[in-house]
């Protein structure tokens, strides 16, 4: 029950949004439901600390036959942070998104995204995971294109096509896997592979298809093109929410698959994941430093940050998995907040071209401080969360004897710092350029809720950086569960 | 379309289709049929009606907006999920009970029937909302 509520809460909002017509009531209801979702996810923490794993067998059908919903500590961390980000972006969006979009269903579809994200974090069955991916893809596609501005259409078509290809790969992988094994329950498949190691070469075609699909979803290097093409087009609320939630679902599934199946065939998979991660880290940071649009820089950065998580996964020790989870949490918070600040700036100045902006620091120091916190947390400055996250990843790498990769990660940090400093100098410090025609400042509009949301996020980033140890302890025990898939298998199959 | 044979036939077919869809809905749990198929069958009858009489007539026939049909169908599904949870079973468990009616008929029913009814209503709502939108965009109102 406690897990199933994470599907029922978004469904409840969707029903009410269909039955109620008034946009102002829907806005309040959206904030209320997002808050309920967040509070409910918090109640999972004590349960999971006591029990290790929560399993719900829907319909009362036992594991390999029915659809099981499973949450271990890793899923619970993701659920909590996703719920927090969703809550913040709903509060922010209640003010930022224009009435036109709210009337045509902005909140309706963002709750669709929430349902998809929550569902993928608790899916215990591969086909179920696929269904949640589709729910997420469809609602997010509509969110990207909602409003129908010209750049939005361009971005959303690229988004849709590349993600449909990913879905195609995923579902063909699912078909092959089912043809080989006759089951799609994640725990059951893991058990079959563990009992019969020779079967893995047979499964590799299916697993490669699924891996490619996750790599597209998670925007790893050769497959990342949809992300920078679409994230800068929708309203800032939407891109902030996507930055916090969507790619992370792909990475979540990759970590889940690696710790359940792929680690059996280390020789083959480890190298692929390690080098793809390294390549994404470098390419993302380099591409970011050549952009001149605020949100494009941040979008390319997501790719670089995903690379850190993936190399931490490839080191595959307890410390590195804990670091990967910690980095994931840090990245979701900081990246979302950077996009949120971008939204406030766009609302007040009407542009996000960093060449045309300038002197924001003097005009409004609060935004500057909020941006400083999230951007330099991304770059990895102490005492913000990014410092602890990068330190943990690199330390785990050195301990796992991957000196070269760790050094590359350290070097990429400098590139990140460079592009963050670039935004900082151009947008916040330099004088407003006189030769470039600056669009006239749009008339002042209220922004207190947007500011509150962004401040709450910044406070979370600082708390996470200063008080890293308590989160790290939780991540460590989550990594322990991930490294011992027997716990997961036994809990799901009830042995 | 002003054609009296077509109009009479469309009305007749609508009644037959609706009756058939209800029959499919009820037998669906153990035999071929079910909420989805039944919803499609009922919607097909309504689409024929819409083609003959225009989309406004169908909206009148449906009484409520298609959004409300989808929403109430989903709400019924939500009820069927919550009933087992309230009785302490895992969500979506099939709970059955036998109700005895007058004339010594006993009705074996349960949460799957509620679920299928919800699917039936929301499928009708979704299909008609698509069709009505298309007809309005194309100004296809006979």
Keywords summarizing the entry:
heterodimer, A: 495 residues, mainly alpha, two-stranded antiparallel sheet, 21 helices, 77% helix, 2% strand, globular, B: 142 residues, two-stranded antiparallel ribbon, 5 helices
Structure description:
- The complex is a heterodimer of chains A (495) and B (142).
- Chain A is mainly alpha-helical.
- Chain A has one domain (5-493).
- Chain A is built from 21 helices and two strands.
- Chain A has helices at residues 5-19, 23-51, 73-96, 99-103, 106-122, 126-145, 150-181, 186-195, 200-218, 226-230, 236-260, 266-288, 294-315, 318-349, 360-363, 365-379, 385-399, 403-429, 448-466, 468-483, 485-493; strands at 54-57, 68-71.
- Chain A has a two-stranded antiparallel ribbon with strand order 1-2.
- In chain A, helix 7 runs antiparallel to helix 9 (200-218).
- The longest helix of chain A has 32 residues, at 150-181.
- Chain A starts with a helix and ends with a helix.
- The mean pLDDT of chain A is 90.
- By secondary structure, chain B is mainly alpha-helical.
- Chain B has one domain (4-137).
- Helices cover 70% and strands 8% of the residues of chain B.
- Chain B contains five helices and two strands.
- Chain B has helices at residues 4-27, 35-53, 55-62, 66-86, 111-137, and strands at 96-101, 105-110.
- In chain B, helix 2 runs parallel beside helix 5 and helix 4 runs antiparallel to helix 5 (111-137).
- The radius of gyration of chain B is 18 Å and the shape is globular.
- The termini of chain B are close together.
- The model of chain B has no long low-confidence stretch (mean pLDDT 89).
- Classes of the chains: A mainly alpha (495), B mainly alpha (142).
Largest interface: A-B, 16 and 17 residues
Q: Give the count of structural domains of chain A.
A: 1
End-to-end Cα distance of chain A: 21 Å
Major sheet description of chain A = 2 strands, antiparallel
The number of strands of chain A is 2
What is the percent of helical residues of chain A? over 70%
Radius of gyration computed on alpha carbons of chain A: 22 Å
Low-confidence stretches of chain B: none
Number of strands of chain B: 2
Estimate the global geometry of chain A from the Cα principal axes.
Answer: globular
Strand content of chain A: under 5%
Count of discrete alpha- or pi-helical segments spanning 4 or more residues of chain A:
21
Radius of gyration of chain B: 18 Å
Provide the helix percentage of chain B. Answer: 55-70%
Category by helix and strand content of chain A: mainly alpha
Spans of chain A of 5+ residues with little confidence (pLDDT < 50)? none
Distance between the termini of chain B: 6 Å
SS strand fraction of chain B: 5-15%
Number of helices of chain B: 5
Q: Could you give the order of strands across the largest sheet of chain A? A: 1-2
